[in-house]
Amino acid sequence: MLDVQDLSFSYGPRPVLRGVCLQAQPGELLFVLGANGAGKTTLFRCILGLLPGYGGQIRVDGQSIAGLSARVLAQKVAYIPQSHHPAFPYSVMDMVLMGTNHRLAPFASPGRAERQLAMEALETLGIADYASRSFQRLSGGEQQLVLIARALAQQARILLMDEPTSALDFGNQVRVLERAAALANQGYTILISCHNPQHAMLYAQRVVALHDGRIVADGPPADALDEGLMQRLYGVPA
Ligand code: ATP
């Protein structure tokens, strides 16, 4: 279970997150909405332990992440970044294997068990045939699928997906969201940051909206996603 209490963070003088509280249970598919710059990625970075100067408390399975090593936290929380990636001169298999790094002793190479995990993750997303391709020669959408496979190979039970459908064609958007819903059904906790209220309406069990650094809505999509919220978040009606 993920439990965020009174989370505050600022990169400089202007606060980005102000007293954010949210909980997410195993099996929950939660969409985080908010305009550009609302703080969605910053929230995810705090949960990943990448911004240690935050105020408040973040607990995973009852333990404060402040006391966890990166290796232990990687077994609990995985991040799927937005699809603007620098060039990585690796094969798809190598990229997915990176998700298994926390299982290895320092400087050890992945073994058979890690390769199997990586292959299963690629198969789960229907992209096993990408394994030997060059990651940097894939399209943005194809790269996105590989990064989701990497998170699955990591075997963390909390997945933070940062705008996972933004670079995908319609078919792959549906595939990724269906996959996220299936993973939630298997007991994963999934947080998806998203700009598409229709996706939230169709797939979210719960919607959390960030505005001006605060949570301004938290509930089932049919209750939370009203015209007032759309106007407040995006300045336009739904
Ligand atoms: P988007 O939907 O556009 O991806 P977001 O909701 O994910 O936006 P964040 O990336 O969390 O928003 O950014 C929140 C605010 O923090 C923005 O005003 C952004 O300019 C600022 N910010 C983000 N990263 C940094 C940084 N490394 N240094 C300074 N300011 C930053």
Description of the structure:
- With 238 residues, the protein is α/β, with parallel strands linked by helices.
- It is 34% helix and 25% strand.
- The protein contains nine helices and ten strands.
- It has a six-stranded mixed sheet, with helices on both faces. Strands 2-1-4-5 form a four-stranded antiparallel sheet, covered by helices on one side.
- Strand 1 and strand 2 form a beta hairpin.
- The two termini are 32 Å apart.
- Adenosine-5'-triphosphate (ATP) binds at residues 11, 16, 34, 36-42.
- Residues 2-237 form the ABC transporter domain.
- This is ATP-binding cassette domain-containing protein.
Tell me the series of helices and strands, N- to C-terminal. Answer: EEEHEEHEHHHEHEHEEHH
What oligomeric arrangement do these chains adopt? single chain
How many helices?
Answer: 9
Helix content: 25-40%
Query: Averaging pLDDT over every residue, what do you get?
Result: 91
Give me the Rg, rounded: 18 Å
* Uncertain residue segments: none
Main pleated-sheet profile: 6 strands, mixed
Beta-strand content estimate: 15-25%
Q: Please identify the structural class as seen in this structure.
A: alpha/beta
Bound molecules: adenosine-5'-triphosphate
Strand order of the largest sheet: 6-7-8-3-9-10
The first-to-last residue Cα distance is 32 Å
Total E-strand runs: 10
What general outline do the C-alpha atoms trace? Answer: globular
Q: Can you describe this structure in just a few lines?
A:
It comes from Flavonifractor hominis. The protein is of the alpha/beta class. The chain has helices at 40-47, 70-74, 92-97, 112-124, 140-154, 170-185, 197-203, 221-224, 227-234; strands at residues 2-10, 15-24, 29-33, 55-60, 63-64, 77-80, 158-162, 189-194, 206-211, 214-219.
